[in-house]
Amino acid sequence: MRVHRQFGTDEGGGFNAATKAYKSDPSLENYVALRRQHPSAEIEVAVTGGIDQAFYIQPVVERFGIDIDLVLGALDADAQKISQLSLLLMEKMIAAKRLSRRGQTQLIRRGAAVPDKLIDWLISISLDALSWNDHLYIPRDLIVLVRERIGGANFEYERASRAHQQKHNAAIIAGQLKAQGIRPTFKLVGKALNVAPSTVKR
């Protein structure tokens, strides 16, 4: 019976040469060089995590109300635990924003907000754990959390693209109104686009 080998390993066991080369120097420059030299190579990229780190970090995560079981599950590439951890972190981020808007301060020191560096580390161990999982299934909850950390859903390029499309739509609607013998106004075009007249004017 043939044993299925893990991603990034040799048939005889252990990491393959490309993976060893990356793990010895997990820099961006080294990864790009390795990938360019070996486009089809399996390179296992996990560099964070480990059971020892989990138990070291246990008092820290528990201080912020994070169950160590979720962290251990994330380290084990358990998609359900990663989803639960991601949702919990997002809930804590939302709660911290609300407290901050109310004028409350020193939230991290009081344990009322999870530090960004801890959130980023938990994201990193989750992604690294998924890297060596053959299925490489990424829970959507983790995707939303990652997107929020890198700027949210309202990116500058998305806003510019939507504005460009709305401008194009406004011109079409104005042309259709004129074709019907109706004088287009900011109010009429705004109503058709479901935006304020001032938005059409801008």
Shape, per Cα inertia axes: flat
Look at the helices and sheets and give the structural class. mainly alpha
Query: So how many helices?
Result: 10
Low-confidence runs = none
Give, in order, the helices and strands. HHHHHHHHHH
Number of strands: 0
Description:
With 202 residues, the protein is an all-alpha fold. The protein is built from 10 helices and no strands. Helix 3 packs antiparallel against helix 4, helix 4 packs across helix 5 and helix 8 crosses helix 9. The chain is flat and about 80 Å long. The mean pLDDT is 86.
What is the strand and helix layout of this fold?
Elements: H1 17-24, H2 28-37, H3 51-63, H4 68-75, H5 79-101, H6 116-131, H7 140-149, H8 156-179, H9 186-193, H10 197-201
Helix pairs in contact: 3-4, 4-5, 5-6, 5-7, 8-9
Provide keyphrases for this structure.
single chain; 202 residues; mainly alpha; 10 helices; 0% strand; flat
Give a short summary of the structure.
The protein is an all-alpha fold and 202 residues long.
